[in-house]
Amino acid sequence: MSIKDRVKSLLKEADLYKSQRLLKESKSKYLEAIKLIQNNEQIPNRKSLINAITKKISTLDTGIVRWDKSSSTPEVSPKVQDLIKKLFTPEEKKDNDVVKSLKSAITLAKFGQYKRAIKEFNQLIRIDSVCVPAAKNSLKCIIEVSSLDDAVTQYHQWMNKNFFPNDKGLIVKQFLQDIITKKGLSISLDTDVDIEDKEKEEDTGLLGNSFMDQDDEDIIDITSIGIRFNHGPKQGEHVELDVSFQAGNVLSLIVSSKDKLLIDSLKIGVRLDDMDFYSPIAIFKGSGIVEANTRIESGPKRGDYSLDIKIHSI
Amino acid sequence: MAIFNIQKREIECKIVYYGPGRCGKTTNLEYLFKAFKKQVTGEMVSVDTEGDSTLFFDFLPIGLGKIKGCDVRVQIFTVPGQQKYSSTRKLVLKGVDGIVFVADSLEVRREKNMLSLKDLQQNLKDYGLNISRIPLVMQYNKRDLADEGMPIMSVEKMGRDLNRQLKVPSFQASAIKGTGVGNTLQECLKLTLISLQRELKWSQ
C-alpha cells in the first residue's frame, strides 16, 4: 500500500470510529496519520493536511473532556425516576406501604437520584417504624449531593424539632458521628440539651448504660443472609438464606433437610467469616457464628433444620 | 430472578444485554423493537446521555405467549457499557435470568471486550451466580464493518478470546442491519426458559 493510500485508510478508520463515538480510538488513528504525513515529505499539501487533522483532533479532545467530566449519575426526569422505582425496587409480599416507599426511595438513591430520594426519605422520617433508616439514608444523600456540613445542619434541624421518638435520635446521631469520625473531622453533634443531659447523667453515673442500650437497639433488621464458604464441603460456594426470625443479633433460619451438605457445613461453633447481611436498607459485610443446629421434630417443617447464627461483626 | 405467579400461571423473567461501551447493545434492542412488534408489549425506554451512550439502561418488555400453560413475559434490559457506569451496571444486572454478551468485532476494541466479560463474571459472582452456569449467549457484533474495509477480528479469534472456556452458543451479527439479532435473542430465551423450567419445575 502506498503512503498516500495508507494515510487515506487511517483517516477513513478514524472517521468511522468518530461516527461510532469511539473518540479515543479515533484520536489515536488521526495521530498516526499525522505522524505518517510528517515523516513523508513527498506528500503534497502536508501542512494544510496536518492542520485539518489537528482541527479534527481538537474537536475530539473537547468531546473526550466533556465525557470525562460528565456525571455518571445525573438527575433524570420524574418519569424516568418513576420507571427506575418500578423496575428496580425489590418487592416482598410482606412489605406494607411504608416499607415499599422506603425501598423505592433507596432505589432512587442507588441510581444517584439524590434530590428526589431526600424528599421521599424526609416524608418517611415522621413514621416511627422507618424513621431511623429514612433519616440515615437522607443524610447519606445530602452528603452525596451537597456536603457533610449540610447533613449536620439537617440533623440539628430534626433534633430541634424533636423529630425522633425515644432514643432513635441517638442512633441517627451515632450514625452521623461515625461518618464524621471516618472522615477525620472533629464536628460535635451535641446540642445544648445533649450537653445538659450528659452533665446530669455523669452526675448520676448513667452515661455508660445509655450507650449500651443504644448498641443493642442499633442491630438492624436482617431479611436474608449470604454465606461464602472458605473451607469445608461447601468451599468456594456462596449460599443465600432467608431469615425466619431475628432476636437481637441472633438470626434464625430454616434449612431444608435435602441440603445435607449445607447442614453439615453449619455445625455449632462454626465461624463464618465472609457473610452478607441483607437488610431493607443495604447489604452489610460481616461475620457470624453458628449457635444452634437443630432438627425440627414436628409441624410442617418437620425434618428440616433450624439454625441460629449470631452476628459477630457487621 | 424470575417471578412465577402460580395462581395466574405467569412467569416474568429478565434478560440483560451486557458488553463494552459502544458495542451495539442499544442497537440490538432498537432492532428488536422495530422487527418484533407482535411480541413487544410496551414502549422501549432508553435513558441515554447527550453523547448517545446508555446512561442507566434501555428497557424493552416482550411477551412470548403461552409456553407449557404459562404466560411468559420477558423484560429485556441493556446495561451502560462505559467504565464509569460500573455501579449502575451492577444494579441493572441484579436478578438476571439470561444474558446476551455483545462483543465488538473491531480490532481496536479487543481489550474492552475482554475487560467487560471479566466485569460480568465478577458482578455475577458478587450476586452468588456463576458465569459458566447462567444461560449465556455470545454475539459478535459489527461484522458488516468488514465490508467497509475496517479491521475487524475473525470469529475464531473472538471465540478464543471470549468463549474458549465458556463454550456458549455464539452468533455473528450486524445489529444496525438486523442480521443475527433475532437468532441471538431466540437462543438466549431458549436457554433461559430451559433453565427456569428446571428451576421452577413448571409444566402444563
Can you characterise this structure?
- The complex is a heterodimer of chains A (314) and B (204).
- Chain A has twelve helices and six strands.
- Chain A has helices at residues 3-19, 23-38, 46-69, 78-88, 97-110, 114-124, 131-145, 148-160, 168-182, 192-204, 207-217, 260-265, and strands at 224-228, 238-247, 250-255, 271-278, 283-295, 305-313.
- Chain A has a six-stranded antiparallel β-barrel.
- In chain A, helix 4 (78-88) packs across helix 5 (97-110), helix 5 (97-110) packs antiparallel against helix 6 and helix 6 (114-124) runs antiparallel to helix 7 (131-145).
- The radius of gyration of chain A is 29 Å and the shape is extended.
- The model of chain A is unreliable at 201-217 (pLDDT under 50).
- Chain B is globular and about 55 Å long.
- Chain B has one domain: Rossmann fold (3-Layer(aba) Sandwich), CATH 3.40.50.300.
- Chain B is α/β, with parallel strands linked by helices and 204 residues long.
- In chain B, strands 1, 2, 3, 4, 5, 6, 7 and 8 form an eight-stranded mixed beta sheet that branches.
- At the A-B interface, helix 1, helix 3, helix 4 and strand 2 of A face strand 4 and helix 2 of B.
